[in-house]
Write a structure and sequence with these properties.
By secondary structure, the protein is of the alpha+beta class. It contains 3 helices and 4 strands, in the order βαββααβ. The protein is 29% helix and 22% strand. The protein is globular and about 30 Å long.
Length: 91
């Protein structure tokens, strides 16, 4: 699974957390329901993304824990703290 490496942005009073993940094209119809179920929103960044042409989806949440749980379930494992710092950015 492709994980976008995006630099952290400056903090804001209304903190939001974001991650961009490559989602299997066969599961794209489930993305909105999955995001909502984890307290997140989603938007498509690219329909034909950089990792084999699968859609690149940005997930966002005001709650870091919700986004972290979503990442864990999508990746099927628990990323270490350094990986999370690289994957997630704040705005």
């Amino acid at each position: 699974m492709y994980i976008s490496l995006i630099e952290s942005q400056q903090k804001d009073y209304n903190m939001a957390y974001h991650v961009q993940l490559d989602i299997d094209a066969n599961a794209i119809h489930l993305v909105d329901e999955f995001a909502t179920g984890h307290g997140c929103t989603q938007k498509t960044i690219e329909l034909c993304g950089p990792a084999g042409g699968n859609p690149l989806i940005q997930f966002s949440s005001n709650n870091f824990d919700h986004l972290e749980e979503l990442i864990q379930q999508l990746l099927g494992s628990t990323p270490d703290e350094e990986s999370i710092k690289v994957m997630v950015w704040e705005s």
